[in-house]
């Protein structure tokens, strides 16, 4: 299990982007808050993507807040990955490692 050490943010509030903030959840478990301009249409899909990235990094105890301005799935994934790495204070070699199992 990957333990988050601090709060971190990735992304912007620009159109077609998403700002992700993540922090350790001292109470345990996952707490996810989603604000999105497309929540009615894609909210469930966005939340599924968030859980998938948390699972890939084995993050169990986190508070995640997303402010989505219409980002596509790959952008959400990338912002989540960056925020997790910053919060866990780990380096990730994107050229050599792929959490999605693709080479």
UniProtKB/TrEMBL annotation:
<comment type="subunit">
    <text>Oligomer with a subunit composition of (alpha,beta,gamma)6.</text>
</comment>
<keyword id="KW-0597">Phosphoprotein</keyword>
<dbReference type="InterPro" id="IPR006495">
    <property type="entry name" value="CitD"/>
</dbReference>
<feature type="modified residue" description="O-(phosphoribosyl dephospho-coenzyme A)serine">
    <location>
        <position position="15"/>
    </location>
</feature>
<dbReference type="InterPro" id="IPR023439">
    <property type="entry name" value="Mal_deCO2ase/Cit_lyase_ACP"/>
</dbReference>
<comment type="similarity">
    <text>Belongs to the CitD family.</text>
</comment>
<comment type="function">
    <text>Covalent carrier of the coenzyme of citrate lyase.</text>
</comment>
<dbReference type="GO" id="GO:0016829">
    <property type="term" value="F:lyase activity"/>
</dbReference>
<protein>
    <recommendedName>
        <fullName>Citrate lyase acyl carrier protein</fullName>
    </recommendedName>
</protein>
<keyword id="KW-0456">Lyase</keyword>
<dbReference type="Pfam" id="PF06857">
    <property type="entry name" value="ACP"/>
</dbReference>
<dbReference type="GO" id="GO:0005737">
    <property type="term" value="C:cytoplasm"/>
</dbReference>
<keyword id="KW-0963">Cytoplasm</keyword>
